[in-house]
Structure formats: C-alpha cells, structure tokens
Amino acid sequence: MDRIWEEIHSRNEWGAYPSEHVIRFFARNYYGRVRNGEQIKVLDFGCGGGAHTWYLAREGFCVYAFDGSEHAVRNTENRLKRENLQASFKVADGTDVQYERDFFDAVLDNVCIYANRLEDIRSMYHKIYGFLKPGGKLLTVCFGRNTCGFGQGTEIEENTFTDIKKGPLTERGVTHFFDEADIGKVISEAGFRNLQTDRILYTDRGDQVEQFVTQAEK
Predict the structure, then answer these.
(1) Which residues, including other chains, have CB under 8 Å from residue 198's CB and lie 6 or more apart?
(2) What is the distance of C-alpha 153 from the center of its chain?
(3) In angstroms, what CA-CA distances link 158 with 104, 117, 118?
C-alpha cells in the first residue's frame, strides 16, 4: 500500500454512503438469500472510508473488511459501533492479507486494487480467487484511461503513474489506468470466468472520470 493513504485517512472523512453499482450488484445477487436467513460472507477488500462495510453490515451480510490504513479501519470500526453493527476487521496490505481459502461468497473491491503497480494488482486478484468459494463472485472497480490525470505526473511503468496533479486522482499516490481489454485479461489470468464489464463515464467538477465495473465468478 502507498503510505499516502494513511495520511489521507488521518485527515479526511468521506464516502459515507455506498456507490449505486455496489448496491445493484449485491441486491441482484444476494438480497433474496440474506432475507431468507442464509449467512452470506463478504470481504470488503480495502474498506477505505467504510461506506460499503457499513452498507453490507446494515443489510445483514456477514462482513469482513481490511485496509492498509489504521485510520481507515479505526474510523470504520467506530462508525459501526455507533450504530450497533458488526464486522470483522484487520489492518493489512492487500498484497499480504490472509484469509481462509474457499471462505467468502463475494469479494468487493471498489477502487482499491487499481492503486498499485500491475504486478501487485495481479497478485491481489489471485489472492481473491483463493479466498472465494467455488461459484463465489467478485465485483471490482478501476479507473480507465479516459480519466483526467492519465498520462500526467511520473510514469513508473506502462499506464501506471504517481504524483498526478490534476483531476480526481490528484495526490492519491500510485494509479494504474486500465482499458476494458486489460482489466478482462488480468482478471481472467487469475482464474475467473463469466466476466461482465460495464463502463461508467461522468464528470466530477468538470473533470472526466472513466470507471470499469467488472463482475466475475470463481
């Protein structure tokens, strides 16, 4: 993990509510099972500000969450405690985090894994594949090359930049920018099947943002 995220989480609080694409994924795939009392184990891979950990706990999932930032984990734990919600937390780097094999029904990565070099990105998708039960699902979100900031700052490897000074990823450490073919290739190489990628293109305070939202199955 880029240590800049500990600094960011120590001085900022944001993202109190979940993203629409995350709600849609879990509603379509799991709401019926949770409502019928089945225990669905979900890992929030890089919980950040905790919006999705909070949402999943509130909706009755059995939630596990980690982040490399101690402040991020502490802030999320405190939020859940205030609302009498439960989750299991760790402070860990995504390249080193350990859970049981074949344990989770679903893993959520909402713009966490992208913030690494490609070698580490590949490693994390392989880890997630091992954590999931057979038939378990992954939802992962990354930034595309049509996002403001691509090609700026310092290129540390192909399509991976740091010290970005413009756009939504300003001073956010390392960013690897994907295109749709690349994200599909990396996830498939980890062993996943039944990939479906949706593209979101929008502006944020005038800066263009492109995201790829990919679902896949073990």
Answers:
(1) 21, 212, 213, 214
(2) 23
(3) 33, 9, 9
Q: For 129-166, how does the pLDDT look when each residue is reduced to its tens digit (9 = 90+)?
A: 999 999 999 999 999 999 999 999 999 999 999 999 99
The single-letter code of the amino acid at 48 is G
Residue 8 token pair: 């960011």
H/E stretch holding 116 reads none
Q: Which two tokens stand for residue 30?
A: 């799991």
Q: What band does 114 get if pLDDT is binned at 50, 70 and 90?
A: very high
DSSP 144: B
Look over the chain and give the mean of its residue pLDDT values, rounded to a whole number.
93
For residues 68 and 1, is the Cβ–Cβ distance under 8 A?
Answer: yes
Phi, psi at residue 162, to the nearest 5°?
-135, 170
Residue 145 zone, left/alpha/beta (φ > 0; ψ -120 to 50; rest): alpha
52, 81, 78: which is closest to 64 by C-alpha?
A: 52
Identity of the highest mean pLDDT range in 9-13, 23-27, 169-173: 23-27
Taken in order of first residue, the domains within the chain and their CATH numbers are 4-143+179-217 (3.40.50.150)
Burial (0-12, 13-18, 19+ Cβ within 10 Å), 206: exposed
